[in-house]
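Morning. Coffee machine broken again, so started the prediction first thing and wrote up yesterday's gels while waiting. Chain of 178 residues, entered below exactly as on the submission form.
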Amino acid sequence: MSRTTYPFYTSDISALARSLKQQWAAEPTAPGHLQILNMLARAAGFSNFQHLRAAAEAPAPLPASTQSALTKRLLKHFDEQGRLIHWPKKFSEQRHCLWPVWANIPAATEMTEKAANEWIKSAEAIGDHVLLRRELVNDQLITRTPDCRVYQRLEQSVPEELTEFMAEIQKRRVITTT
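Came back before lunch.
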């Protein structure tokens, strides 16, 4: 059976030794293995060994630069310029990948179908702007008149789970335009 190691650190070895001496003096017989573990944990400021173990096993916070799993998964569908290069197979990822295309369309601007196509084409490299335009309409990210002559982006907030992803796409677009 393998053993799990738990890191143990004390900032003052003298205080550790003093604490152990006091705890051993209080014991009528030589302490056992678990008692020694508890003494070491108490000397380090924990209530017992279980407390030390729980603190050691607590997941460390992720570094700020670490991207979420969702963001990493979605970015695989985009190139260095922030353009869509693969249409995802998963429906949920398809919905998420429409947001950068939506963000590329100018806000509060009525445009012709041709102009809307140009904005969509500038955000994708899959060569199927018609699919993307249709999906944007179906997801109510853009609107069109019944005769399909006038298109306009519908203003709304980006879902919270996509803010990191959208920020990364925006960074890619800014870097390539400067």
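The helical segments are 13-26, 33-43, 49-57, 69-75, 91-104, 113-122, 129-138, 163-177. Going to sketch it on the whiteboard this afternoon.
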